[in-house]
Predict the 3D structure of the following.
Amino acid sequence: MAQKKKIELTRLQGIIAVASFSSGVIIAAVCLFFIPPLGEIASSAISIVSELLVLCGAILGVKASYDVKFRKFEAELSQVIENEKKPTT
């Protein structure tokens, strides 16, 4: 049961990573290149928000990728241990 929760959490982290990365890129592209500011919003404030969203997406994406690879390595290792424990005739 705990393994299933870890897989769901990793999948959720991956979705959040893709969503925050995409929203950061979209905010940066739209606000900095296509829409002129209506008030006193500096372009640096918009770029900071978009950079933080991209950073969040990158960190979560790396963690989700690491979790998947670690889980795969753990499964392979347990398979090797099981094969060594089996008696050979």
